[in-house]
Amino acid sequence: MRKTGPLPFAPFEWMIAxxxxxxxxxxxxxxxxxxxxxxxxxxxxxxxxxVMSVMNGFHKELLDKIVGVNGHIFLQAADTPLNDYDRIAxxxxxxxxxxxxxxxxxxxxxxxxxxxxxxxxxxxxxxSDLKELPGIGGSHVKIGTLDGFxxxxxxxxGQGLAESLSLRVGDNLTILTAKGAQxxxxxxxxxxxxxxxxxxxxxxxxxxxxxxxxxxxxxQAFFNHENEATxxxxxxxxxxxxxxxxxxxxxSLPRPVIMTxxxxxxxxxxxxxxxxxxxxxxxxTLIVLVAALNxxxxxxxxxxxxxxxxxxxxxxxxxxxSIMRIFxxxxxxxGISGTFxxxxxxxxxxxxLETIRSGLNNLLHANLFPAEIYFLSSLPSxxxxxxVITVVGMTLGLSILATLYPSWRAARLDPVEALRYx
Length: 422
Fold this sequence. Notes:
The protein is an alpha+beta fold. It has helices at 11-21, 28-70, 85-93, 127-132, 149-152, 159-164, 205-208, 216-222, 242-252, 262-265, 267-305, 307-315, 320-351, 353-364, 371-374, 385-411, 415-421; strands at residues 73-77, 98-112, 117-125, 141-144, 155-158, 172-177, 182-183, 186-187, 190-200, 211-215, 231-236, 257-261.
């Protein structure tokens, strides 16, 4: 009959390892260090999950808001004006992967009311296109209506702009542009008042304070672009397929145009967001690293405190492997339990972040997430499983590595020297 060796992590190894984790009068300080290590890992894992979820939320929400009103691909005139915008829009709409094509007239202008004044980006657009615009149509209209927009002779404005100008539906908004009518004395400014027919909320403060939508014919007349469009915006079914769709659009157009996409227009912004995400990950990871170092110091102190116990176990026949496994179990138990607790805490916080923020705002009578600074009206949080797996895996790896040296040191302990000086 073949003799089998001892199984790894025998029951007596678990019993001794878990006993070492309990607080005793003689080793209470070691247990305090173990508790601090547990709390450090728990807080670090929870913080990492929350930080990564918030950064994912920022990226997703800002991308949705920016693309929701700006499109994925932009077509502008290269040599002659876009007076054939309807034909171009029809050709682009037939391209595979294109979801929506909207011709527009854009122009910067000053806007004012009897109470205040501001700058704005005025866009001329058809009613049917405005209702389909992801960031404007549907539930985004808070007051008024977009029905009859083409023939209303009015404007749709963002809620932030309406609040800053103290405007309500039915009030008049005055628009001023320096590029008005051509006169013998030069270009005269053009100024005209329009009734407010709808107030929308995109959810991004920068856009809610900026956009004014006019009926397309009215904007063409106001900005001296009769029967022209200044830009044609293209929305895709899958934004990730933007490169392949750009090539298809380029080959389908009968005339040269200047083509750009949202990545080129917002590259600096999203690159900065990505750098911030990586930096925050590194900074918060230091919390986990410090907690792992606490495991090392706690186990080293535990080995020193239990040197007599180790010597007795060795003289009773326990191999060095068993001694090493005992302290591996002790250290990894702290790491695994702290990681699991941080995993649960992080998910709970990430899923209820906006509720927590609102509660703290009411409790402290303060605004912890001002929309004017962070662009968004609510704190976003998107939990990505891949990020959670990365955080948990990294923490477990650090916890296991932290136990190797103290466990090896315990296994190498000379029982004779330990009993003599223990």
